[in-house]
């Protein structure tokens, strides 16, 4: 016992010498089994990164927090020992009726993050949750369980958001999203951006001064990624969005590195070296997202693709278009080349594709949702006589795209809807095998939701995309402002409301509904709502 206490006393002295009064003061470190647990008094508030919930099921959900009194310091103000964290889930905001409670262990190996899989709750209702550590108490979050399996559900109303470059704008959209009180949030990725801090960025019309800056340089190590997540999560508007509803999260590229796929970055880094960065990114992603243990990282891998149901109304297929994808064609440039038609190209990988096909085929839901990262429409980005494809979208992977669309068509999948992000613009369109030569009846419709902040203030529609829309008959709507979307789904109708802000480079940006488009059950065409 004395050796263990001496070792942690030394760590405590080192922390205090390094950080002074900001460090955690360890009162005692009792041994539990073979592991010492720190019971601490915090000089700084330990729940600075907020709380979150995610992956709701009919009987529960995940609740998350991470202890970080000094988020940017080495060791983030915590002792190198496990810490017990209490948690409560209540049927009311005042916690008069506690439905479940317990303790979890915040491990130093996971950055003192906590993921609690709460079970035994009632389906289809709101709950509230909070954490305690020592004498400190977290903020309160609201979560909502999914409806009972197979239940008839009259309505689901949820938000879609992502692409939140911290430097390029404020998170006003997250605050407004929280006020919309959705049943859940689908975050399509680009939760963080990996680049170094910059005072100025190259905007569409020349240099633009960032409204705030990333801490430090480009991120590579686990500590780097932890600090970057901490900087994002300390934003009060983002914390409000997490506290308002449970999130289903998937990642895209910037959680690791721009346009990465499989074990390749786009800078020619040796894959063995790049995989070291992927390991750090995968661990940090798990540490900071409200994910279940099934997503626990194994080396570079995280189990991102998964499925969730909302009674018989909606089945949500959350996809991963990064880990198993073949390299971008055409040198990752907006051009047309023979590589677009590679027969061995993969977007999801064959295993995930088989999982998706089997799930869609077996589904009894009214609406079958493909919730993923990159545009599925095959837009021609050249308004002139040429052809330009975005190689980082499904348009760069024609063979797997055709297989998927034929599956939706030939197996008569009920009411497929594709939800997408990545483009920093709003798009709504109809999916065809060949968008340049559309059939009378589309296979499905796709809603591409704009960024929270990436790209700065934006405009209603850029002149270039007005021309692009004119030569792409499948594209029905395009807008280049920031915001999010609300999807209001009933057994008869799907309505997507595109909500946009007039500015995000100031905190008082005004939110409006730019467009509402609908799909009638049984008819994949887009109509005005």
């Amino acid at each position: 016992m004395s050796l263990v206490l001496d070792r942690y006393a030394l760590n405590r002295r080192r922390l205090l010498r390094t950080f002074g009064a900001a460090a955690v003061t360890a009162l005692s470190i009792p041994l539990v089994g073979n592991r010492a647990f720190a019971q601490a008094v915090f000089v700084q508030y330990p729940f600075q990164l907020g709380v979150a919930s995610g992956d709701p099921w009919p009987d529960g959900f995940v609740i998350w927090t991470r202890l970080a009194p000094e988020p940017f310091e080495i060791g983030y103000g915590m002792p190198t020992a496990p810490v017990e964290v209490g948690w409560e889930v209540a049927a009311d905001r005042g916690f008069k009726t506690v439905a479940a409670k317990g303790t979890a262990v915040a491990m130093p190996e996971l950055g003192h993050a906590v993921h609690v899989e709460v079970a035994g709750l009632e389906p289809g209702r709101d709950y509230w949750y909070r954490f305690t550590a020592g004498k400190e108490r977290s903020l309160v979050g609201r979560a909502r369980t999914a409806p009972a399996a197979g239940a008839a559900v009259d309505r689901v109303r949820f938000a879609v958001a992502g692409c939140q470059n911290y430097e390029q704008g404020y998170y006003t959209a997250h605050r407004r999203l929280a006020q919309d009180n959705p049943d859940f949030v689908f975050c399509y990725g680009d939760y963080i951006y990996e680049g170094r801090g910059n005072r100025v960025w190259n905007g569409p019309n020349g240099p633009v001064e960032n409204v705030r800056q990333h801490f430090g340089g480009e991120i590579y190590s686990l500590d780097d990624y932890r600090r970057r997540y901490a900087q994002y999560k300390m934003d009060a508007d983002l914390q409000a969005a997490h506290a308002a509803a449970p999130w289903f999260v998937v990642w895209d590229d910037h959680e690791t590195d721009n346009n990465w796929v499989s074990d390749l970055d786009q800078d020619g880094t040796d894959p063995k070296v790049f995989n070291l960065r992927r390991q750090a990114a995968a661990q940090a992603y798990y540490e900071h997202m409200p994910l279940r243990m099934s997503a626990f990282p194994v080396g570079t891998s995280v189990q991102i693709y998964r499925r969730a149901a909302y009674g018989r109304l909606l089945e949500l297929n959350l996809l991963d278009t990064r880990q198993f994808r073949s390299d971008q064609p055409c040198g990752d440039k907006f051009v047309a080349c023979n590589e677009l038609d590679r027969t061995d190209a993969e977007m999801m990988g064959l295993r995930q594709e088989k999982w998706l096909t089997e799930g869609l085929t077996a589904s009894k839901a009214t609406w079958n949702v493909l919730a993923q990262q990159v545009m599925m429409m095959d837009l021609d980005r050249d308004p002139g006589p040429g052809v330009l494809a975005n190689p980082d979208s499904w348009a760069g992977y024609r063979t797997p795209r055709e297989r998927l669309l034929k599956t939706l068509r030939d197996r008569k999948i009920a009411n497929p809807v594709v939800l997408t992000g990545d483009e920093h613009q709003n798009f709504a369109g109809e999916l065809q095998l060949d968008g340049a030569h559309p059939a009378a009846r589309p296979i499905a419709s796709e809603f591409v939701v704009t960024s929270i902040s990436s790209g700065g203030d934006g405009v209603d529609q850029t002149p270039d995309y007005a021309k692009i829309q004119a030569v792409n008959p499948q594209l029905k709507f395009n807008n280049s402002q920031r915001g999010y979307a609300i999807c209001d789904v009933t057994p008869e109708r799907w309505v997507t409301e595109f909500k946009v802000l007039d500015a995000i480079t100031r905190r008082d940006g005004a939110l409006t509904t730019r467009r509402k488009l609908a799909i009638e059950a049984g008819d994949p065409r887009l109509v005005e709502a």
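Residues 1-29 have pLDDT under 50 and may be disordered. Helices lie at 2-19, 172-179, 222-233, 236-244, 271-288, 350-362, 398-410, 463-470.
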